[in-house]
Specification:
By secondary structure, this protein is α/β, with parallel strands linked by helices. It is 25% helix and 29% strand. It has a six-stranded antiparallel β-sheet with strand order 9-8-11-6-7-10. A six-stranded parallel β-sheet has the order 15-14-13-12-16-17, sandwiched between helices. β6 and β7 form a beta hairpin. α7 packs parallel to α8. The longest helix is centred in the first third of the chain and has 28 residues. The relative contact order is 0.10. About 3% of the residues have low confidence. The structure holds FE2/S2 (inorganic) cluster. Its EC number is 1.6.5.-.
């Protein structure tokens, strides 16, 4: 009986190994579609080897398309127009495209496999995106699962970004992942300090990039990132501002607050920052500095479940409940939100209840 089981396991293992070998060979040979041409904006042409996604081939040629999920088809950010070639629209793309986008041939570049010549159109600002070689200069533990990483720029030496924008951090293959990936993180630094980029990153269990950053990346190591991307940024109106964030959603709001100090912005602003426990709040001293530097700024930390021994006497419950308690009428305000999809959706619902117009709500949702 035991021998029969052993032989069966052996046969199954051999079949699995043979299948893996066939897949590897197919990937190398059948997945190679030979030389293909990518024509961009009817102007430039790239000669590539077909077989990979359009996103990957463009990135290989140093043309970086926003891709917050690293090409997994879950963020919907890698859109561009495919005017010719590219094959039919895939079911994985459909949920991310409006009727109008489908009619104008918008596709998710991570889902389009290049098998023959292809013609695409991409916005001019994408060409302004650069790749930066950096050195990890400092790693600061903010909470048990959130750290602030400071990267000194080596080449180019400076970055020009608008507070609220994000970069994509490259993770090389390492012990726990054979995949090379990019992940998007909002810049948290002061744009005036253009020789550095600071990111606030929360550890995602089994996350390829965050595990690399938390368990492998050390001060002094070189990393690559590209950017800046995104249009999440302060408007130039005088409308009072409601900021709402949680966890690493602190990043773009912190950068915007530096910007408000630098430009002597006098807009009234309230910042509701949600955490589960008091120990999950961070950068409180910096927020106090902002309160003293800005004309009319209030920081409102909100703790959902404070422990009795934490002696918390501030706002409690969900961050949206605190917003409701403190704001009676949001009809003339603008809101800037950053956090999980659940927190953003709940915040939008509450702000609309308080009279805010949808077009005055700006957000950066984690993919
Ligand atoms: S990179 Fe294509 S959907 Fe995220």
């Amino acid at each position: 009986m035991f021998t029969t089981i052993l032989i069966s396991v052996l046969i199954i293992s051999l079949i699995a190994a043979a299948l893996a070998a066939v897949l590897a060979v197919s990937e190398n040979y059948l997945g190679d579609y030979g030389p293909c041409k990518i024509t961009i904006n009817k102007e430039s042409e790239l000669e590539v080897r077909g077989g990979k996604s359009l996103l990957a081939l463009l990135s290989q040629e140093k043309i970086f398309i926003p891709s917050a999920c690293g090409g997994r088809g879950t963020c919907g950010m890698c859109k561009l127009k495919v005017l010719e070639g590219g094959g039919p629209l895939l079911p994985t793309e459909e949920p991310f495209l409006s009727d109008e986008e489908r009619d104008s041939n918008v596709r998710l570049s991570c889902q389009v496999k290049v098998r023959n010549d292809i013609e695409i159109q991409i916005p001019d600002e994408i060409f302004a995106v650069q790749e930066f070689k950096c050195r990890c200069a400092d790693i600061l533990e903010l909470t048990h699962d959130i750290r602030q990483f400071t990267f000194e720029l080596i080449e180019p030496e400076k970055i020009d970004f608008v507070p609220g924008q994000y970069v994509q951090l490259f993770t090389p293959a390492y012990e726990k992942s054979s995949e090379e990936v990019y992940r998007a993180y909002s810049i948290s630094s002061d744009a005036r300090n253009d020789g550095k980029i600071e990111l606030i990153i929360r550890l995602v269990p089994n996350g390829i990039c965050t595990t690399y950053c938390f368990d492998y990346l050390k001060e002094g190591d070189e990393v690559k990132l590209n950017g800046p991307y995104g249009d999440f940024q302060l408007s130039d109106t005088e409308a009072p501002i409601i900021f709402i964030a949680g966890g690493s959603g602190m990043a773009p709001i912190k950068s915007m607050l530096h910007q408000m100090v630098n430009t002597d912005n006098k807009r009234k602003a309230s910042y509701f920052f949600g955490a589960n426990k008091v120990s999950e709040l961070f950068l409180g001293d910096l927020m106090k500095d902002f309160e003293s530097q800005l004309a009319d700024f209030t920081y409102v930390p909100v703790v959902a479940n404070p422990e009795p021994e934490e002696n918390w006497d501030g706002e409690t419950g969900l961050v949206t409940e605190a917003v409701k308690r403190q704001i009676d009428d949001a009809s003339v305000c603008e809101a800037y939100l950053c956090g999980s999809p659940g927190m953003i959706d709940a915040s939008i619902a509450v702000l609309k209840e308080l009279g805010m117009k949808e077009e005055n709500i700006f957000y950066d949702k984690f993919a």
